[in-house]
Amino acid sequence: MLFQWRGALQVHKLCQVSANQILNEFKPNLMIAIGGGGYVPARILRYAYARVLNPNASADGTAPESRDVNRSFLKTPNSPNIPIQAIGLSLYENLGQTGDSDIEQAGTKVTRTQWLDLSSLSASSLIGKNILIVDEVDDTRTTLEYAVRELEKDVNEARRRLGREDERPTRFSIFVLHNKDKVKKGTLPREMIDDCRYLAARTVGDVWICYPWEATDIEEHDRLAATQPSS
Question: Which residues contact 105 (CB under 8 A, 6 or more apart)?
Answer without folding.
Answer: 92, 93, 95
